[in-house]
Write a structure and sequence with these properties.
Blueprint: H1 2-21, H2 31-43, H3 46-63, H4 76-83, H5 94-107, H6 122-139, H7 141-155, E1 157-165, E2 174-180, E3 186-188, E4 202-210, H8 211-217, H9 222-237, H10 262-267, E5 268-269, E6 274-293, E7 299-302, H11 305-314, E8 319-335, E9 340-346, E10 358-362, E11 364-366, E12 369-371, H12 378-399, H13 441-463, H14 480-493, H15 495-519, E13 524-529, E14 535-540, H16 550-554
Antiparallel strand pairs: 1-2, 1-10, 3-4, 4-6, 5-6, 6-7, 6-8, 8-9, 11-12, 13-14
Length: about 550
């Protein structure tokens, strides 16, 4: 019976691939179809297309070297200079500016503090504060957050998955933070406007895996996976094109044709026998019925619409039944190449059903432009590299210029054959040295040096990170007050990065607190550190507290 089900699943997947490849809009509303449509739409959206190109270049300018010559993904200028045998110098001013901001963040880390909602919650809030600090140390949260901050400062976006790993502890699970790279292994609805992604249609986390490893993880889908991938490969060889489904209740999806087969190869690479796996997180809605008391203002949630209407009918003058919609997060694992859903269920975080587990850090965003501090530093850095290379090339060329003279004007021409020969060169009377032999090199060098200095100034002014923040000083000896003021000015310009980062950390800690509540449900004893740094043993979820209120347990 199970084998028949698997074969049917493989047949359905192959049929979906066949219908789609033939250009027929499939009516399949499965998660696999929607997830593939979302991925195709978002991957080709101008926001993500530009971000993938620019972010890779931003990271290259931070690393420096040959990567700091890139322009729109091309190193044509550098290759032309090197092919001509000319000097190519790469000076990295970008890295110091980024490291100033990331250094501030690392030096000013702080432990989160849980605030009580009332006096009765003070003890619980203190305990959660200690537990949160303990878990953050266990999962290396501070280090991961710093890496995400650096990603955002450099390229504009960073992301982290606050999840529970059940592979080591299948019963309780282990809380962990996984750093993600936007555009590389995670993308989300490009129409999002809120940095908590609450208005995003979904978030797609993806990675390439070998089909054998995938089958080892999902052995029950082996026949379906192989059958669908073989069908997709056969149709791809016939030049089939992909038409995505029509819009559904989960949000519109636009049809796209794979650009040059790029997405088809991304979904499935037959030469490597590797496939793209999508972990899709998306929003859904459920009906909620509440009964509102018009006099007292009290609101109670009912089990169903019928129950709410029955209660309201008992006192129609004061009670009313109201229907609302509540957002819930669902997830699934799909193979876009095979139109196959491997897993589909509600979010595994039952006490955190309305928020995506993947949280993002946005450094700056204006419309469809997402960027960090490096984006506007690249042009002056490129120009400085070119001008500095030109200066070094000119110095090398004229410093090693071969001696030349007018014909028959030198008494001992053999001395010109060696640059290391110190013997004098005698000229005959009536002949003058060539005028071109002494070009205005000093003036040219002054101009190029001035251009290089101007570009350094442009880099600092564009970033807002002045010399005092960099630990350098202008000419003269300014007072301590003047230095402090210029440092404060540079910090104000960089405030936006830290303000957005503070909001990001708050969301991460909220998700961590939810994971703590989900994982630690049985009685356990922890060695925690209190507010003054004292180590103490704390017992959570005592058995004798089960089924009792806070007051009842306090009287024990």
């Amino acid at each position: 019976m199970a084998d028949d089900a698997v074969e049917s699943l493989a047949g359905l997947a192959a049929a979906a691939a066949l219908g789609s490849a033939q250009g027929v809009a499939t009516e399949d509303e499965s998660l696999a179809v929607r997830a593939r449509a979302w991925f195709t739409e978002w991957w080709n959206h101008p926001l993500w297309v530009k971000y993938r190109r620019e972010s890779e270049e931003d990271v290259g300018f931070y690393i420096g070297g040959d990567l700091a010559w890139s322009k729109d993904g091309s190193k044509e200028d550098l290759e032309r200079i090197k092919s001509a045998g000319r000097a190519a110098v790469s000076i990295n001013h970008v890295q110091a500016i980024v490291d100033i901001l990331t250094g501030f963040e690392r030096q000013n880390r702080f432990d989160p503090k849980v605030l009580p909602q009332g006096e009765e919650d003070e003890q619980d809030a203190r305990l959660m504060t200690w537990l949160l600090k303990f878990i953050r140390e266990q999962c290396g949260a501070s280090a991961t957050e710093s890496e995400v901050f650096e990603d955002g400062v450099i390229a504009g976006l960073g992301a982290v998955d606050i999840r529970i790993d059940w592979t080591e502890d299948p019963l309780n699970g282990t809380i962990c933070l996984e750093r993600l790279f936007p555009g590389v292994d995670v993308i989300w609805d490009p129409a999002w406007t809120r940095n908590d992604l609450s208005d995003a249609r979904g978030v797609l986390k993806f990675k390439r895996v070998f089909v054998k490893d995938l089958i080892a993880q999902y052995p029950e889908h082996q026949a379906a996976i192989r059958g669908a991938l073989n069908a997709a490969e056969a149709l791809a060889g016939q030049g089939g094109k992909t038409t995505e489904p029509t819009p559904d209740a989960y949000g519109s999806t636009k049809g796209h044709v794979d650009e040059g087969g790029g997405l088809a190869r991304l979904f499935y690479d037959a030469t490597e026998d590797s496939v793209l796996v999508l972990e899709a997180w998306y929003r859904d809605y459920e009906d909620v019925w509440i009964v509102a008391n018009k006099v007292s203002g009290q609101i109670h949630e009912a089990d169903s619409g019928e129950a709410a209407k029955a209660v309201a009918k008992s006192d129609p003058e004061n009670l009313s039944a109201i229907r609302r919609q509540r957002r819930v997060i669902k997830m699934g694992v799909t193979l876009p190449a095979a139109y196959l859903t491997l897993e589909e269920d509600d979010t595994p975080y039952e006490n955190d059903t309305q928020a995506y587990p993947i949280q993002i850090y946005v450094a700056k965003r204006k419309r469809d432009e997402v960027y960090g501090i490096v984006r506007n530093l690249k042009d002056p850095q490129r120009v400085e590299n070119k001008r500095e290379s030109q200066m070094q090339d000119l110095l090398s060329r004229f410093a090693n210029m071969r001696p030349m003279a007018e014909e028959n004007s030198v008494v001992n021409p053999h001395t010109l054959g060696s640059h290391h020969d110190p013997s004098p060169v005698w000229y005959k009377m009536g002949h003058k040295p060539p005028e071109w032999y002494a070009p205005p090199l000093s003036e040219l060098m002054k101009i190029l040096a001035l251009v290089a200095d101007r570009n350094q100034t442009f880099i600092r002014s564009a970033s807002g990170i002045n010399l005092d923040l960099l630990g350098l000083r202008e000419k003269g000896d300014p007072s301590g007050i003047a230095i402090a003021r210029t440092q404060a000015q540079g910090q104000i310009i960089a405030t936006v990065f830290f303000d957005n980062y503070r909001a990001f950390k708050k969301r991460v800690n909220e998700r961590l607190a939810r994971r703590i509540q989900q994982v630690f449900t049985s009685e356990q004893v922890f060695r925690l550190t209190n507010e003054v740094g004292e180590s103490m043993a704390v017992r959570v979820n005592p058995v004798e507290a089960v089924g009792k209120t806070r007051d009842e347990f306090a009287r024990l």
